[in-house]
Amino acid sequence: MAPATVRPAPLPPAVAELLEQPPPSGGWLPPEFEPGLVSVIIPVYNGGEFIGETLGSILAQTYEKVEVVVADDGSTDRTPEVVRRVARALPCRARLDLRVLRQPNRGQNPRATSAPGCRGEYLNFFEQRRPDGR
After folding, report:
1. 16: in domain
2. What per-residue confidence (pLDDT) applies to 86?
């Protein structure tokens, strides 16, 4: 018996219409963005115990055009110290930018305040989590 042929679901009409149009000329990125750059935002609050491991996971990737933004929501633990230690060890790694954006802890989502400062064509939020899920 021959395997059944699986057909993809049809595209929604609005998506199909959009794909039929020619791409915009001159590129779609504003000049302040860097093509191919991936901006990774790590929102963190008092994550000193785990932020080193989180950053290590990102640094272990083979793609090198990466901007890492640690969005620190006013940590009162070792978070800033750990991030500084990692940043000092980075000069040997080409094409990686590690920045820390600190804000006072006021309950505002650090994703919303840090995303506008990113330069990447792609944006990814990398959650720093404790093993218990918090």
Report:
1. no
2. 86
